[in-house]
Amino acid sequence: MTDLGRITTDAPPAAWPEATPMHDSYGRRINYLRISLTDVCNLRCVYCMPENMQFRPRRELMTDDEIMTLVKVGASLGVTKIRLTGGEPTIRPRVVELIRRMAAVPGIKDLAMTTNALLLEEMAEDLAAAGLKRVNISIDTLDPEKFRRITRWGDIDDVWRGIRAAEAAGLLPIKLNCVVVRNFNDEDVVDLARLTLAHDWEVRYIEMMPFGEITDFQQSNVVSFRQMRDIVEAAFGPLEEAGYDFVDPSRPFRIPGARGTLGFISSVTEPFCQGCGRVRLTADGKLRLCLLRDDEVDLLTPLRSGATFEELRALMRDGAYHKPWGHGLDQGLIAQGRTMNQIGG
Ligand code: SAM
Ligand code: SF4
Predict the structure, then answer these.
(1) Which of 142, 241, 319, 322 could join 191 in a cystine, given CB atoms 3.0 to 4.6 angstroms apart?
(2) Residue % of the chain over a pLDDT of 90
(3) Distance of CA 172 from the midpoint of ligand 1 (Å)
(4) Ligand 1 within 6 A of 48 CB?
(5) Cα–Cα distance measured from residue 319 to residue 315, given in angstroms and rounded to the nearest whole number
(6) Distance of CA 48 from the midpoint of ligand 1 (Å)
(7) Which ligand has its closest atom nearest to the C-alpha of 268?
(8) Which residue's alpha carbon is at the smallest distance from atom 1 of ligand 1?
(9) How far does residue 6's CA lie from ligand 2's centre (Å)?
């Protein structure tokens, strides 16, 4: 039998011995790990972080080897899906090599990334060759000036080049994430929806969630799922349901006859906690049990203090067991500890 305490190199076993899938205390199976590769970003979206954001010193962030150890810990506990996020994951040095290493871990079947796409034109092919399967790309408006305002300095042409490169590299299906912010881009949901008439893409509208120090802005400018749907239906007529599976947070609809779909992620007004099998790893190595709760389990400190693989497994398994049922926004509970880029959205 493989000694789990000795699995420290990049030559993993063909399968994990005694793999016991993680469950939480409500019986939800936890098989999806989202990893924030860095809190740093090359944009400063208004709904994500303050303009003068202070990033963590590098020594506080997980190294490549530390990330790989925790990925193997997760895989040995039944994690099959990984999404790389941030901050902006493409700016992490050696990210292509890191993906190649993750793709080789037994049990990891789905490796995806959420990105602002600014660097995809040059990286998409290498990312796909390393084993990345697909990307979600953030684009909140099709209007170049509004895009610059929302991101504080972004050039939308870079995103279009990134989308085309992702398609050419086979990082499919393409999903476009749009956080809807009142008075910034609430009317732009129509232009984004129009893209699905000709493209086999999923445009996903996300309700803005409140975190930490920019809560006031986020709460006073949230646009609800119902309001977004009304705006889209006023332009295109009633949407058709396109098959909700209760595991994906996005509820899919279609404009009749369109090639692509429209997804609505209603985390604030109609949460979908019953199907949530996700936990997150922050860039500084904490297992975050719910996006919208401050509950975390420190994995990096024990790892740096010499914890064995088996001890790390116990920490992750026990942490996941205590995943809270849902967020407490309707009771006024707002996670204060971190902004979105630090958690890994
Ligand atoms: N930089 C990458 C990007 O923008 O795609 C990955 C990290 S970003 C934090 C991940 C996702 O979180 C993006 O789709 C972004 O739009 C979303 N996001 C950021 N702040 C949010 C908020 N306050 N509410 C809802 N979604 C948010
Ligand atoms: Fe950066 Fe993504 Fe946050 Fe925008 S949403 S500031 S691109 S991490």
Answers:
(1) 142
(2) 73
(3) 20
(4) yes
(5) 6
(6) 6
(7) 1
(8) 88
(9) 37
Is 36's C-beta closer than 6 angstroms to any atom of ligand 1? no
Query: 5-14, 220-229, 268-277 — which is least confidently predicted?
Result: 5-14
Cα separation values, 215 from 46, 48, 198, 220, Å: 11, 10, 37, 8
Residue 12's pLDDT band (boundaries 50, 70, 90)? Answer: low
- In this model, does residue 229 exceed pLDDT 90? yes
- Structural domain spans, the chain: 32-343
Does ligand 1 lie within 6 Å of residue 218's CB atom? yes
Between CA 261 and CA 243 the distance in angstroms is 10
Q: Which residues line ligand 2 (CB under 6 A)?
A: 41, 43-45, 48-49, 86-88, 116, 138, 340-341
Q: How confident is the model at residue 6 (pLDDT cuts 50, 70, 90)?
A: very low
CB 41 less than 6 A from any atom of ligand 1: yes
The CATH code of the domain at 32-343 is 3.20.20.70
Distance 131 CA to ligand 1 centre (A): 23
